[in-house]
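ok posting inputs for the guanosine-5'-diphosphate job
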Amino acid sequence: MPAPKQRKIALMGYRSVGKSSLSMQFVEGKFLESYDPTIENTWKKSLRINATDYELILVDTTGQDEFSMFPSQYSLDVHGYVLVYSIENAKSFEVVSALYNKLVDITGKTYFPSVLVGNKSDMFQCREVSAEEGRKLAEKWKATFLETSAKHNISVSQVFQTLLNDIERADSNEKPN
Ligand code: GDP
Ligand code: MG
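and the output
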């Protein structure tokens, strides 16, 4: 049996948008009302997609804003990015957009596998970012767009499965259109 493919994914975005909650929900199937925001954690999960075994390494960053330095460990040997904002926080949407531009600058690439995630979809009553705005931004990036709820486990596994597929496609040099 071939060794599992190791894939490293970084979760980035403004503080408190749910990066740790998405990781924990996906890896452990749990949701906590509070999780220490200062912990930079690495989560690991083994999974199989289309008969391929993966060892997924999730780098759960402590969060950035538009002025943050971009630590090089987030651009080295990272295969793909989950860029997270919260649908009830317009500022977090601005931050995610700025982060993407920094990634382009730092990696010098015009395409890297990424998923744009609008988390906290259960808080639609306080919505500040429309799904349409999210979709448009993702389209610009040639990224997948998903609205999720880490709290209710809505579309969480899709985030990582889609990203793994995109990474696979980028690997085999088939450019997305
Ligand atoms: P991080 O700083 O981006 O890692 O954010 P956390 O995962 O620590 O989440 C910040 C806060 O938002 C915590 O109180 C979470 O319980 C809450 N939270 C995270 N995801 C969701 C969600 O999908 N829905 C709701 N209602 N709250 C969430
Ligand atoms: Mg966190």
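notes: The beta strands are 5-13, 41-49, 52-60, 80-86, 114-119, 144-147. The radius of gyration is 15 Å.
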